[in-house]
Write a structure and sequence with these properties.
Layout lengths: L2 H10 L4 E3 L5 E3 L2 H13 L4 E9 L5 E8 L6 E8 L6 E3 L7 H13 L2 E3 L39 E7 L5 E7 L6 E5 L11 E7 L2 E8 L7 H5 L4 H8 L7 H16 L5 H29 L3 H22 L8 E2 L2 E2 L7 H24 L2 H7 L7 H7 L3 H6 L6 H4 L20 H23 L20 E8 L4 E8 L7 E5 L2 H6 L1 H5 L4 H11 L3 H5 L1
Parallel strand pairs: 2-5, 6-7
Antiparallel strand pairs: 1-2, 3-4, 4-5, 8-9, 10-11, 11-12, 13-14, 15-16, 16-17
Length: 539
């Protein structure tokens, strides 16, 4: 963080204490947090990159906020906490950033922190009858035996108001009124792209409200990481957004390497960048296929899957995996590229260019596809930033949010490519961003594939890795947007806390805003073009 910004924050809030450990952050008293957050928002910090719930043991429970100013690219990290473990309460910031609404519900679910004046303090992932909060350090798993009974949907949203004497007034308001017609979509509906559930209030065919239910595939990856060594945590990243496996693992390796002060060889940087872009092509081809299938264009679905197989063949030859890559490792990659890798990548690009034109003839120009996608599910730029809806969804709304441009890493600062932007913010713009990004990914690969330098593909690392005390955050541009890794280290061989900034949670949190007023049939097209992956949301 630059010195001027530090001085400004200290002047605005004298009680804020700066810590140099790790990336550096300000600790702000809970009663002063909202005022400082509002001031930072006024100063241009309009993007809440990440909000992480924390248990600091005897020190208390709290949250860490990563903020960015989209105009200048400046970043700041705030930390706040409460020592009251019995009734922990912090001020909400969801009136400043819409992204906080679901993130604060996540922190409530896992840590039991109530956010004062948050409009909907329900659990986000776990059942309402779940006992305790699993990411607390003192959590007892024995409190929750396996329940085979069906969960009853909670139909009231709770909010908490703090009174002058320190007690809470609990407010309840119904999510759906008694006379509303509510239908259930998911969690076993093929067009929700995984086990995600929407409860939708309809007036005729028009969507009036949409309530998202997550957690049907929850596997507790962040909790598992706390008992694993750093090399062991790598295996779990591929299973988050499995269509961005290479990029997820790249982010975690990069975070650990940066914390340790390790500089990986240039050969590794080239290979990682090429693999990330092949993964992006793979993901976008699947996006095209599934969207087409959701809308009834089965021929295009087969075309997309046929061509995705060609990408997976190349990945498998080097990494041994098709979906789960397990390729990046701390200090490099698991194995050198296959002898045929360069030739096959060049053949793939030569094949894909004319094939993409065929896609556009079959689907993009189709009158039915255009009428169903154009003008449907509009997300404004302001809302995209406020929700933190990055990736193709943000760029379709005119927000230049590409991490490869904002915070270049690997070889992205040395290659020439365009950040694909549209301003319409509708389903068709979201579709076109991804189709154009396939072309840009090929352009990036072409600049690197013939120039991979000689050298080591992996540095020799100690068998037990420890990173210095402090908190660290690193992000990459995943297939669906910013995928971030936050690590708090106490200098041990395992992370004290590891949080993955899901690309999908902001995308799902903006679904009600995007879908309200659309027809129920349009919800399928909207979900397909927003392009979330459920295990990445549930973590």
């Amino acid at each position: 963080m630059n010195t001027t910004l530090k001085e400004k924050i200290t002047a605005w809030e004298p009680a804020a204490v700066w810590s140099e450990a790790g990336d550096g952050l300000f600790t702000v008293p809970a009663d002063r947090l909202h005022a400082l957050a509002a001031r930072l928002k006024e100063e241009g910090f309009d993007f809440l990159r990440s909000l992480t719930g924390m248990d600091w043991g005897e020190e208390g429970l709290g949250t860490v906020y990563h903020l960015e100013a989209t105009r200048t690219g400046a970043n700041v990290v705030l930390r706040t906490l409460t020592a009251d473990r019995e009734n922990p309460a912090l001020p909400t910031v969801c009136d400043l950033w819409k992204a906080a609404e679901f993130n604060e519900r996540e922190a409530f679910d896992y840590f039991g922190i109530r956010f004062v004046n948050h409009p909907d303090m329900r659990r986000l992932y776990l059942r309402d009858d779940w006992v305790g909060h699993p990411l607390r350090k003192d959590y007892d798993p024995a409190l929750n035996p396996l329940r085979m009974s069906n969960e009853v949907a909670e139909d009231t949203a709770e909010s908490f108001e703090l009174t002058h004497d320190g007690s809470f007034i609990r407010h309840r308001k119904p999510i759906f009124e008694e006379d509303e017609y509510v239908i259930n979509i998911g969690p076993q509906h093929p067009a929700t792209h995984g086990v995600l559930r929407f409860r939708v209030a309809l007036e005729g065919e028009i969507i009036r409200k949409l309530d998202v239910h997550c957690g049907y595939i929850h596997r507790g990856i962040e909790k598992m990481c706390e008992s694993l060594t750093y090399p062991q945590t790598l295996a779990l990243t591929d299973r988050l957004d499995y269509l961005g496996a290479s990029q997820n693992r790249h982010a975690l390796c990069m975070c650990i390497e940066r914390a340790m002060g390790v500089e990986v060889p240039e050969r590794v940087q080239y290979i990682r960048t090429i693999m990330d872009e092949l993964q992006r092509i793979d993901s976008h081809l699947l996006f095209f296929s599934c969207l087409c299938m959701d809308m009834g264009a089965l021929t295009a679905f087969f075309y997309g899957f046929r061509d995705r197989e060609k990408v997976l063949d190349i990945l498998e030859q080097t990494t041994g995996g098709r979906l789960i890559q397990t390729y990046n490792t701390i200090g490099g990659v698991q194995a050198d590229i296959h002898p045929d890798f360069v030739r096959k990548v060049k053949e793939l690009i030569a094949y894909l260019r004319p094939t993409l034109r065929e896609y556009h003839e079959v689907f993009t120009g189709n009158v039915i596809a255009r009428q169903r996608l154009e003008g449907t599910g509009v997300l404004s730029r302001e809302d995209a930033v406020s929700f933190g809806a990055t990736g193709g969804t943000g760029r379709a709304s005119g927000w230049a949010c590409d991490v490869r441009k904002r915070h270049p890493y690997a070889m992205y600062g040395k290659v020439d490519f365009e950040e694909v932007l549209f301003t319409e913010g509708d389903c068709f713009a979201r579709y076109m961003v991804r189709m154009r990004e396939i072309e840009q990914s090929m352009r990036i690969i072409e600049q690197l594939i013939d120039n991979i330098p000689q050298g080591e593909f992996r540095l020799k690392m100690k068998p037990v890795i420890r990173i210095p005390e402090g908190s660290y955050y690193t992000a990459v541009e995943g297939s669906r947007g910013e995928f971030g890794v936050f690590i708090e280290s106490r200098g041990d061989k395992s992370p004290y806390r590891m949080k993955f900034r899901s690309t999908g949670l902001p995308l799902v949190s903006c679904m009600e805003t995007v879908a309200r007023g659309a027809k129920i049939a349009d919800l399928i097209a909207i979900g397909g073009t927003v392009d979330y992956v459920v295990p990445d949301i549930d973590r």
